[in-house]
Design goal:
Helices cover 67% and strands 0% of the residues. The chain is mainly alpha-helical and 246 residues long. The chain has one domain. Helix 7 packs antiparallel against helix 8. It is globular and about 50 Å long.
Length: 246
């Protein structure tokens, strides 16, 4: 006698409903935990990565570049973890609002900081100065947007993230030494692919935690590229942004 076994999964425990235009997405408890863990486990490795890069740095310019990138990476994971932890704990009002804004704003800082080591330490045929200003001005404008229109225009917010992440990449066409471009491209593709899940909160279970995993993978690809092609290779920092502006 054959028996048919079926497993019923209560989807309400895995994902919440889709948020309306005028409200924030509220994860389920299981999603809260996943959101905390997927970035929380990256905090210590990000500090260790900063330490190892700093120890290998061969010039003051490398130290500056790595501190900017490493601290941005650390604050990205830390701010995200703190925000999701406060949300899970039921925090409301100004505290939660400030950390939510910080969680979104630090993404702009991290994108700009990810470009900074390359613009400081690679030769871009004299356009490093322009692209350095471009990426950080876009970062400041993105942060101002967060303070003025926090989560009001959600699709526009994603467009801003993509613009600051993709547009300055045109600088790659001016690189005199293309080493590391493959890893940069892989990391960029991972980040952009993850945006799909970033916009699927309330549609795909654990969508935000999956987005966190894409961020980790993209950051690892870029960290590998920086540690392999930039750290310890610029004693005199030839062709760097600092040298060009001194």
């Amino acid at each position: 006698m054959k028996r048919n076994f079926s497993i019923s999964v209560d989807m309400s425990k895995l994902k919440n409903r889709r948020a309306r235009h005028d409200e924030h997405y509220q994860p389920t408890d299981m999603e809260h935990i996943a959101n905390m863990l997927t970035h929380g486990i990256c905090i210590i490795p990000s500090l260790y990565g900063l330490k190892t890069m700093h120890e290998r740095a061969s010039s003051p310019t490398e130290v500056i570049a790595l501190l900017i990138y490493g601290m941005a990476l650390f604050f990205l994971f830390t701010t995200s973890t703190l925000y999701h932890s406060l949300s899970f704990a039921g925090a409301k009002g100004l505290l939660k609002h400030c950390f939510h804004m910080g969680d979104r704003a630090v993404i702009y800082v991290f994108i700009a900081a990810s470009y900074t080591p390359w613009l400081l330490l690679k030769d871009f045929g004299g356009v490093s100065h322009f692209f350095m200003w471009l990426v950080w001005v876009m970062c400041v404008l993105g942060i101002l947007y967060q303070f003025l229109f926090h989560s009001k225009y959600k699709s526009l917010e994603v467009i801003f993230y993509l613009m600051i992440g993709i547009c300055p990449a045109y600088a790659i066409t001016h690189m005199t030494d293309p080493s590391g471009v493959q890893e940069l491209a892989i990391g960029g593709i991972i980040y952009v692919s993850g945006v799909v899940f970033f916009k699927c909160d309330g549609i795909i279970p654990f969508a935000h935690a999956i987005w966190h995993c894409f961020v980790f993978l993209g950051a690892f690809s870029h960290f590998y590229a920086i540690n392999t092609y930039l750290v310890g290779k610029h004693g005199a920092t030839q062709g760097s942004f600092v040298s060009n502006t001194a």
